[in-house]
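Researcher: I'm preparing a figure for a lab meeting and need a structural model of a single chain. I don't have an experimental structure, so a prediction will have to do for now. The sequence is pasted below. Please return the structure as C-alpha cells so I can convert it later.
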Amino acid sequence: MTTTKKFRIPLFAIITFLGSWAGVQGAEELENARVTLQQWVETRQIIAEERTEWMAEEKTLNESIDFMTAEIESLTSAITVAREDITSQGDNEKKLSAEITEYEAAIAIVEKAVPVFEAKLIELSSVFPAVFVEKVATQMRRIPDPKLDRIVEIPLEERIQNVLSILRNVEYFNKTINLSSELREANGETVEVRTLYIGFGQAYFSDEAMTTAGYGYPVVGKGWEWIERPEIAQAVNDAILVADNRKPALFVSVPVSLQE
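Model: Understood. Here is the structure written out cell by cell.
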C-alpha cells in the first residue's frame, strides 16, 4: 500500500522562481504572473474569511434550529395535555350534567310528595288530641292549607324538615302513654277529667270523683268518638294513677274498640 504525500511550496520560493524566470521571459510576463498570483492569494483569503463567517453562522443557525425544535416539542406536548384536559373536562362535565339531571328528578319527586304528606297531616290533625296539638302547633301552622286564605310561602327544604318534624312527634306520641287534663260534657254539665291516651289508638277518661268515666277512639276526619262507661271509672282511675307514678303497676280491665 502506497501513500502519497503532499508538499506545500512556500510563497517566497514561488516569487524567487518567478524572479529568475522573469529574467528569461521578460518584464511583461513577470508583471502578469505577479498580478495573477496576487489575485489568487486574495481569492483564497476571501474564501477563507467567508468560510469562517459561514461556519460561525452555521453554528448560530444550528443552535437556533435546536432551540426552535425544543420549543416546537414543548408546544406540541402542551397541546396534547390541553386536549387531554379538554377531554377529561368534557367527561367530568357529562358526569356532572348526569348528576344534576338525577338530582333534579329527585327534587321533582320530592316536590310532588311533600304536598301529599302535608295534606295527609292536615287530615290526621282531626284526631290530634289537645295535648299533642300543643307540641306541633307551630309546625302545623307552617303547612300551606288550601282551604285557608292564609298564604304561607316556605322554601321546599323547610317544608320537608317541617313534615319530618311533625312525623317524628307523631311517631313518638303513638309509642307512649300521655296524660291530659280536659273538660268534657257529662250529664249536661262540664266536668274536668283526666284522659289517658294510649298513643293514637285508644283513650280513657275519668273524673277525680270517679262518677264520670268512659273511653274513646279516633275517627279520621271526625275526631274522637267518646263513649261514657261510668262502671270503668275505678279501673281507669287506677291506670291513671299508675301512669302518673302515684301507684304501683297492676293489671286493669278496660274495654277496647278496634277500628278497621
